[in-house]
Amino acid sequence: MPPPVVRSESAPSRRERLAVVAVALALLAVQSVVLLGMNLPELVRMIPDDSFFYLIIAERFREFGAFSFDGIHQTYGFQPLYQLVCIALAFVFREPRALLLAALFLGSLLHALSGRSLYYLVRELFGRFGAWGALVFWLANPALVVWFWSLKENALYAWLLILLAHELLRVLRSSSVSGGGWRLGLLAGGAALARVSFVPIWWLATGLLLLGAGLRRPLRARVKLVLVTSAAAVLVSGPWFLFAQLHFGSATPTSGLIKIAGTKAYVGKTLGLEWLSAEHLLATAKTTLAYLDQTFRAATGLWGPLVQGTVLAAVIACVMGWRRRAERGTGEPFATASSWTCGYVAVLAVANGYLSALFLPTFLAYGRWYTTPEFVALGVGVGWSIALAGRLLRSRADTVLLAACLVGGVLAWTHVRRVPWESLFTPTDFLETPPDSNQVLLEVGLWANRHLPEDVLVGARDPGTVTFFSRRRIVALDPLVNTYEFFRKYVRDATDFVRERGISYVFGPGVMRDGRYCLLNLRGGPHEVIWISHPEVDLGWLPGEPTHYMLARTLDAPSADFLGPLDFEYGAWVIDPENTERAAARDERIQRALDGFEVHGNILRMRLDPGGVASGGRAYLSIDGERVRDTAPRPDGWVYWDMTPYRGRRARVELSAGDAGDVLELYTVDLSFP
Questions:
Q1: Tell me: the pLDDT tens digits for 9-40?
Q2: What is the pTM of this model?
Q3: Are residues 563 and 640 in contact, defined by beta-carbon separation less than 8 angstroms?
Q4: CB-side neighbour CA atoms (13 Å) of 397
Q5: Is the CB of residue 533 less than 8 Å from the CB of residue 443?
Q6: How far apart are CA 567 and CA 345, in angstroms?
């Protein structure tokens, strides 16, 4: 494929700059309105559990002046620059809801800023037509919008990478000796603080690039440029890494070290390969190809068919361009700076993908925040494809060819990816469907806020969502947000840590094994599961066996028995595997709902006997004596109703057949922010 072609265009006019800002601000406003209109399950559905670590650590720093998850133990389980930004937000926004919305708005703002910067980068590389295409793809792509809402450092990291590529293009085009290398270094240092894994791919790509790109400069000038750039990068990032080494005992976040340690065990025990052997490196190369394909699908989302069709059109435009130049015996000059800049972006993406597959293979299925350089490269690639495909608009025949490419891309995507088109246009009400794993964690956190005393010491695995919404100081049993010392103890036996800290209760995912319920993170240590929050929901966290989120009482640590069956409005109060009761006072609650009650919650969930009324009957909801809902139960007997519009009003549940004995469960959940 020919190198990118630089168009000799004038500098952006004031009208063009205002248009770019207007588009970015308009989409930022739309995102803000959408965010403010979402309910808690919709918000939490987009946010990984680990993302709440940033907000919790920020609140603890405001409270204790230390980097800690629980105010007791030190942590370096974060990317430094974004964590410092969250700490600044926590000092300004002291209410949890305000802090959450501010962090989400910050992601949207960085999304808009990165889109604006991407426009000017692509404009200098490929012209205005490609720049507008890249801008619209970046800002109006739902898959990328949600990606920027994940409360991770990827929004900040993406913006810095785009600025870095733009500055590199200016350096390569500059005729001065230093060429602005210090600005390039400042951005590189910021990117390293935004995500520490940038450091190895920075040295891999930038050093080779600046030394080998030619640039019509002598070798001595290129070496000086590399030294100036590196010095500026160290000046920005060095103080933090020195502080981290002295304060935490590691310049690299302990979360990364722990992930790599877990990967070593996975490669040896599960894959049967020697760590970093030739076989391991080759297997990783194969994994990387599949990973990059998965990344492409995740980043394009609904735009996938159009992107695929545009790429096809760009390839055809390249072939036609080669043929026409060959016929004329002319060609366009090789655009050194543009080509090297595009190559740099591509190398960052491929190298990052390979290193992610090498060191973090077990996290690739859901760790979309690792793919930032790949997403940036895709944004640049879309601009390139649109710029080349635009050449087909010069004649009527070529325009028809362009349309055929787009239609072909849509059809190919539909066939190969088997896109369920009907599901793309069916809105999902998260209050009227079974809760997913993120919503389960949200509801457990809200339950803890209403039932756990503030002075009780509780531990949790997957603790981010539960801790943030419980507003309790919960000790993390997740190695990624704890010390490396804890990780070593956790590998041996996490119960030692629980015992030493005097933790009374523990939240975490669990299963039934050997005839008893047990928490996975306690590894069979002495504990007694007392509550399964949603027995009907399989979290899907383990292949081949149902996983549920549970609460257990530790048996060899001082434990105050302040929780009893009446504290659990829903779920299963577990006495033993042979006798699992639904939440206490179930019959009374069911009868009260059938007789009539005042609505205080957001969700009403009811399960009918599948062999009774649920097999052919219907359930009705009356508000203030007027029937407003008429629902047939799901095959498993469950009925889900959004009660938000009826808060404070009088409700009553009716059945078309049967009686209260056919109602196996009925409860409401209040999803109000604590």
A1: 568 888 889 999 999 999 999 888 888 888 88
A2: 0.89
A3: no
A4: 2
A5: yes
A6: 55
